[in-house]
Design a protein that fits this description.
By secondary structure, this protein is α/β, with parallel strands linked by helices. It has 2 domains: 141 residues, Rossmann fold (3-Layer(aba) Sandwich); 65 residues, ACT domain (Alpha-Beta Plaits, 2-Layer Sandwich), CATH 3.30.70. The protein contains 6 helices and 13 strands. The longest helix has 13 residues. The chain is globular and about 50 Å long. The protein binds ribulose-5-phosphate.
Length: 222
């Protein structure tokens, strides 16, 4: 296992401590979350059920005996556990490297608490090195791309990939993300964009960050 994977596994294992029993929870997507599902399954802790954000997450949940529930069948989730592609010091994030940021944002909205699990490479002072994923309706792809170029971005179509809802993803480099909240809103005001991978409106409440010298809990909101 790579050093980075070891750190992802440590952050994921720590997150199990924050899962309340007999509650509904939300589970994100990605390799860090895969470690979390495994750790939760092996812990013997029992949740009432979990809302999943991707096919892979659903498959792993089934493998570890975690019951899946639809987002439409719950009014709240006690906690949402997910990874990030980048997370800054106020816990705003870029997500969607795996293309699942739209279901992730929906499920995060339902949760009382969003816990991000990450290895130290994801913790940045400024968002934007990682290209920003934007989910677009296929018929709006070129029109949206031109508007992104006008904003200073360099969009690139994610070739051979369609989201859970059959849409396209534009990965965008070069945008000025120094004000993540206003960029998130500005992008979502463009017709044809389903949602973008900035999580500033709904930032994380707690970051479980695995560093080579140990696991740190970061909560700048207290
Ligand atoms: C998927 C995501 C993931 O959380 C993000 O890509 C991090 O993935 P990983 O844990 O594999 O590094 O947002 O849409």
């Amino acid at each position: 296992m790579s050093k980075q994977d070891e750190l992802k596994q440590q952050a994921a294992a720590k997150a199990v401590e924050f899962v309340p029993e007999n509650e509904y929870i939300g589970i994100g997507s990605g390799t860090t979350v895969n470690f979390f599902i495994e750790a939760l399954g092996k812990s013997g802790k029992k949740v009432k059920g979990a809302v999943s954000t991707s096919q892979k997450t659903s498959e792993l949940m089934a493998q570890y005996g975690i019951a899946e529930i639809s987002a439409n069948d719950v009014t709240r989730l006690a906690v949402y556990i997910d990874g990030a592609d980048e997370i800054n010091h106020t816990l705003q994030m870029i997500k969607g490297g795996g293309g699942a940021h739209v279901p992730e944002k929906i499920i995060a909205q339902l949760a009382d608490q969003f816990i991000c699990i990450a290895d130290e490479s994801k913790y940045v002072t400024r968002l934007g090195k990682f290209p920003l994923p934007i989910e677009v309706l296929p018929m709006a792809r070129s029109m949206v791309a031109r508007q992104l170029v006008a904003m200073g971005g360099q969009p690139e179509l994610r070739i051979g990939y369609h989201t859970l809802h059959g849409n396209d993803i534009l990965d965008v480099r070069g945008l000025d993300l120094s004000q993540p909240l206003s960029v998130e809103r500005q992008l979502n005001a463009i017709t044809g964009i389903v949602d973008n991978g900035l999580f500033a409106e709904k930032s994380a409440d707690l970051l479980i960050l695995a560093r080579s010298n140990g696991v740190e809990l970061i909560n700048p909101h207290v």
